[in-house]
Design a protein that fits this description.
Belongs to the PrpD family. By secondary structure, the protein is α/β, with parallel strands linked by helices. The chain folds into two domains: 290 residues, 2-methylcitrate dehydratase PrpD (Orthogonal Bundle), CATH 1.10.4100; 117 residues, 60s Ribosomal Protein L30, Chain: A (2-Layer Sandwich). A hairpin with a 6-residue loop joins strand 2 and strand 3. Helix 4 packs antiparallel against helix 10 and helix 13 packs parallel to helix 15. The longest helix is centred in the N-terminal third of the chain and has 22 residues.
């Protein structure tokens, strides 16, 4: 491989990221970044509470029912506590089970779930303050996304899922920050993270995807706890000739991992999903809404719809043509478009097993084609509908809802939270939980906030 394809191997990335995380103090974090951290945690708690009712989570709880350790941290959506490792695993898997969690603007990376699950479990174990939890969340989010930035798009193109790979480093840093690791301990922890970080895109559309993301949080907490006890590892595990970057990406630029370190925070590139499916579908969903609302197009009017999407967003892991389960529906662009046009919605109800298997949707799914257009940028979509009366209408989406140029407001995040937790928390408890989450920095003990969720 040409050295030009693998830049920055001479940079001590592991040391620089570890020192950045350890030295970060509250005064270093701009208020806008603190606000974004709270937005991310509000979103995480809502999707994790909803996800805690998914079949996968019930199965995982049965696995650990007789194996859990000390009652250190709460399982989200329950009164029961378990050990911090198990809580991190199950709560992280809950947060990703519905594929409704936030995502980075520049690459496919769900940055909050592994970090949030780690800081909540370790924070409860330590009875940490909300202020310290927020600082650890920012530190972990920043390091994980910086590693993802350095390795993308190559690591993703190789078949690795970014969230359980880079997310393992993120969870490690977040847990290590709360455990007050020093710089050398943090480097050792990152080395142990490199030994555990894994996750295949082949698992998209199955329970294996949130399972491997859950392991990122668990493995990160384990690495940090082990480092605190003096377990050692390579201190150059990211950049070394046999390190994580060389093992996982054909091309990378480790300079991106440290560019603007301490001055620019990756959390400011975070986006929140308005729709409960794979991110590339969101532009097509907005296009279906535009066809319906701007042109009066209904399913019975459609002969054929062609959606032009950016090259690289339509592949086997994001475009399952004939889904048979709700999980597969989240990765079927045809289903997302068909159900959006039919239901005028793309929420949790549109991605159940029953809705995906509804025979009335199948003909419309088959009438929708997706084609790659190299002239389009990420987030764009052009949809052309040929109607049964012989007419043709076309719409273009440049900035789907939720993207940085069209972000969800705090009020929209609150509505999403309430929609997700309806039936789990009553209205009064929802209000109290949101009040505590929006004022997290005032909490003396994060466990008291967790008790409300």
């Amino acid at each position: 491989m040409d050295d030009d394809a693998r830049q920055g191997r001479d940079i001590e990335v592991t040391r620089l990221l570890a020192e950045h995380a350890v030295r970060l103090v509250h005064a270093d974090v701009p208020p806008a970044v603190v606000d974004e951290a709270k937005r991310a945690l509000v979103d995480y708690q809502g999707v994790a509470l909803a996800g805690s009712r998914e079949p996968l989570i019930g199965k995982l709880k049965r696995v650990y029912a007789v194996r859990g350790g000390a009652p250190e941290a709460r399982l989200i959506g329950e009164d029961r506590k378990t050990d911090a490792l198990t809580a991190a695993f199950i709560n992280c898997a809950s947060g990703h089970a519905l594929d409704f969690d936030d995502t980075h603007a520049d690459f496919f990376y769900h940055g909050s779930v592994p970090v949030a699950a780690a800081v909540w479990s370790v924070g409860e174990m330590l009875r940490a303050s909300g202020r310290d939890v927020l600082l650890a969340f920012v530190a972990g989010w920043d390091v994980g996304a910086r590693i993802a930035r350095a390795l993308n798009p190559s690591i993703y193109d190789q078949g690795w899922q970014n969230t359980p790979t880079s997310g393992t480093f993120a969870a490690t840093v977040a847990a290590g920050k709360l455990l007050r690791l020093d710089a050398d301990q943090m480097r050792h922890a990152l080395g142990m993270a490199a030994s555990q970080a894994s996750g295949s895109r082949q698992n998209h559309g199955s329970m294996g995807k949130p399972f491997q993301v859950g392991k990122a949080a668990m493995n990160g907490v384990l690495a940090a706890l082990a480092a605190r006890e003096g377990v050692t590892s390579s201190m150059v595990a990211i950049e070394a000739p046999l390190g994580f970057a060389m093992l996982t990406a054909r091309t990378f630029d480790l300079r991106r991992a440290v560019d603007g370190l301490g001055d620019r925070f990756e959390l400011q590139r975070n986006m929140y999903k308005p729709y409960a499916c794979c991110l590339p579908h969101h532009a097509a969903i907005d296009a279906m809404f535009a066809l319906r609302h701007e042109h009066g197009v209904m399913p019975e009017h459609v002969e054929r719809i062609v959606c032009q999407m950016p090259a690289g967003t339509l592949d086997a892991s994001t475009s399952i043509d004939e889904p048979s389960t709700g999980l597969q529906g989240k990765f079927s662009a045809r289903h997302s478009a068909a159900v959006a046009l039919t239901d005028d919605a793309a929420g949790l109800a549109q991605y159940t097993d029953e809705r995906v298997r509804d025979a009335r949707l199948a003909p419309l799914r088959r009438a929708i084609d997706f084609v790659a257009d190299k002239t389009l940028e990420r987030g764009q979509c052009i949809a052309e509908a040929k109607l049964r009366d012989g007419s043709t209408v076309s719409v273009r989406v440049d900035h789907p809802r939720g993207q940085l140029a069209n972000p969800l407001s705090d009020e929209e995040l609150v509505r999403k939270f309430c929609a997700n937790v309806g039936g789990i928390l009553d209205a009064g408890r929802q209000t109290r939980a949101l009040q505590r989450l929006w004022a997290l920095e005032t909490a003396d003990d994060i466990a008291e906030v967790a008790d409300m969720l």
